TrEMBL record:
Organism: Exidia glandulosa HHB12029
Family note: Belongs to the enoyl-CoA hydratase/isomerase family.
Annotated Pfam families: ECH_1
Gene Ontology molecular function terms on file: enoyl-CoA hydratase activity
A GO-annotated cellular component: mitochondrion
EC number: 4.2.1.17
Protein name: Probable enoyl-CoA hydratase, mitochondrial
Length: 257
């Protein structure tokens, strides 16, 4: 794999770092292809329980590679189903994916962060959908996920003006789960990813699937789905172990079964 991505592990956590510093991690097609391969490889690895996706100190990602967009036409975007692989690829990962955002998360970079399950941000992070400034609109979920995360007023303001919001505003609005000093962000995200990895893998996957279904289902259907998944947890070895361990006042030993 080329150095557009840096891949590492820490305990049971897979770490993927976007590495195009000269272009502020702009998402070229080549970078996206490599990112999806890395995420899929960690998703299949039984030793990995969660994945942290990060960028550089200056930028998580400054969006789609604008140089590549200059040659895009309607016909080749439409016929090639441009962005489908990115959108479906990230959201099809079964294990939790945590975005650790330093610096700019703009356009496709903000959309990529929103495809992840949790966003942790450094105090210097900024989020925005500035596509209007270059004559286009968010195309990888920005108009749909941002409104669900921050509400219509803020989403419309960001998308129509192209203005960025700070990490502090993003946390207040509900886009970001936690803010860290920049030098503590990656370790903080890895610690939370390890904490999640220490739980039962099938239970974590069920919880993730239920929470994500809330974006697609009406409330009654979502509640029904949650209830069925809740019933299903009692078919796992880990639910027996977890409940017995509590009663016996000992730590649970998860077998992921
Ligand atoms: C394949 C698709 C993936 C999903 C896409 C879904 C649809 C999304 C569309 C978009 O994302 S459109 C792009 C939205 N993003 C932007 O408009 C941000 C563009 N960048 C900036 O406004 C600025 O760079 C900045 C982030 C405010 C930083 O400004 P600063 O003055 O600090 O640095 P620069 O000198 O501008 O940048 C350094 C270097 O990086 C290059 N660069 C920055 N962003 C991009 C980009 N999105 N694409 C390509 N290249 C980018 C910039 O050109 C500079 O390079 P050089 O000119 O020095 O070679």
């Amino acid at each position: 794999m080329s150095d557009l991505l840096l891949i590492a592990t820490s305990g049971n956590v897979g770490i993927v770092r976007l590495n195009r510093p000269n272009a502020l991690n702009a998402l070229s097609q080549q970078l996206i292809d490599q990112l999806l391969s890395a995420l899929r490889a960690f998703d299949k690895d039984p030793d990995i329980g969660a994945i942290v996706l990060t960028g550089s100190e200056r930028a998580f990602a400054a969006g789609a590679d604008i140089r590549e967009l200059t040659s895009l036409t309607f016909v080749n975007a439409y016929m090639g189903n441009f962005l489908q692989s990115l959108c479906d690829g990230v959201t099809s990962i079964r294990k939790p994916v945590i975005a650790a955002v330093h610096g700019f998360a703009l356009g496709g970079g903000c959309e990529l962060a929103m495809m992840c399950d949790i966003i942790y941000a450094a105090e210097n992070a900024s989020f925005g959908q500035p596509e209007v400034k270059i004559g286009t609109i968010p195309g990888a979920g920005g108009t749909q996920r941002l409104i669900r995360a921050v509400g219509k007023a803020k989403a419309m303001h960001m998308i129509l003006t192209g203005e960025m919001i700070s990490a502090q505003e993003a946390e207040k609005a509900g886009l970001v789960a936690k803010i860290f000093p920049p030098e503590e962000l990656l370790d903080g995200a890895i610690d939370y990813a390890q904490k999640i990895s220490n739980y039962s893998a099938p239970i974590v996957a069920m919880a993730k699937e239920c929470v994500n279904s809330a974006a697609d289902l009406p409330l009654t259907e979502g509640l029904r789905f949650e209830r069925r998944m809740y019933h299903a947890t009692f078919a796992t070895v880990d639910s027996k172990e977890g409940t017995r361990a509590f009663v016996e006042k000992r730590p649970a030993t998860w077998t992921h079964a």
